[in-house]
Amino acid sequence: MMKDDFHFSIRTDLAIETREMVRKEQDVEVPGVKVTVEEQKDKEITVTWVEIMNEEGANQMGKPIGNYVTVESPLMKENDVEAHEEIIRVLAKQLVKIKKLKEDAVILVVGLGNWNVTPDALGPKVVSRIMVTRHLLAHVPEQIDESVRPVSAIAPGVMGLTGIETSEIVEGVVEKVKPDLVIAIDALASRKTSRVNATIQIADTGVHPGSGVGNKRKGLTEETLGVPVIAIGVPTVVDAATLVNDTIDHIIDAMINEYESSNKESDFYKMLQRLNEQEKYQLIREILNPYVGDLFVTPKEIDAVIDRLAYIISNAINIAFHPGIDLKDINRYK
């Protein structure tokens, strides 16, 4: 299997995971890629910046040149209001950092996904919580604080519901609204089960709807829309092969630890050490495919978790792009 095949055979939308896989394969830091990690251990929050700096890095990662910021916390999916408020502040800080805007910048928030399918409903749910102000600034500007930017929002649905490509709808809206920035929210796919519903990725390279589950559509990027696009996504599913692969990895780790603790070596132990990651994953997919096809798995509590994630992301956007507004103001508005 060629290296490029490996990048695309293991399904993930997260740059942090792609970097981990390439780095593990080559056993060195990925050329043309810069990584910065910040941890708040007391709050269980990790922020990782993956910057793809040149064409070499883009080719190695299979992603466009740009910045990919990952905010991780297992508390995202828990019913912990204090933790969520801290995650909102951290996420808002990263949004401000990744894209500097003028004070009167017009922003369009696009909630991608199918509101009838819970794991894919993140985008529409975020849009329903956005502090929409464009119409207020147009009709009653004297009643609106100067720190409030003109923000509009749309949930265009999916082609199966509308018969229209999402990109065509968004292109039409952009042409009429003429925003300075588009923020697109979408559900993603992850390589690791531990990151499902516990990771938020921000990217300044745009988004390709459906790419994580192998359903590629025309991208929403600066090239296609004519304005900068920030993509915000959360992995809400993993494919069945990933789930089985992770389970086997845990079993292998336990068996290796047992052999090491007993100071024994065997042919089986040596075989475990020689297992190739991409070959193992491909073997699992080939075995599963006749029985389950391209099956994707999501946690049983997904309804409540999606609501929590929508609350976190929408309020981070509200705070980041309305200077001078805090959570208390947002909650009063909503």
From TrEMBL:
Q: Which residues form the propeptide?
A: 1-13
Q: List the molecular function annotations (GO) for this entry.
A: metalloendopeptidase activity
Q: Extract the coiled-coil ranges from the record.
A: none
Among its keywords, does the record have Protease? yes
Which biological processes are named by the entry's GO terms?
proteolysis; spore germination
Q: Which domain of life is it from?
A: Bacteria
Which reactions are catalysed by this chain? Endopeptidase action with P4 Glu or Asp, P1 preferably Glu > Asp, P1' hydrophobic and P2' Ala
Keyword list, A-Z: Hydrolase, Protease, Zymogen
Return the EC number.
3.4.24.78
Q: Where is the signal peptide?
A: none
In its record, the post-translational modification comment is: Autoproteolytically processed. The inactive tetrameric zymogen termed p46 autoprocesses to a smaller form termed p41, which is active only during spore germination.
Q: State whether it acts alone or in a complex, and with which partners, per the record.
A: Homotetramer.
Query: Tell me, what does this protein do in biology?
Result: Initiates the rapid degradation of small, acid-soluble proteins during spore germination.
HAMAP family, A to Z: Germination_prot
Homology family? Belongs to the peptidase A25 family.
Q: What is this protein called?
A: Germination protease
- Give the species this sequence originates from: Defluviitalea raffinosedens
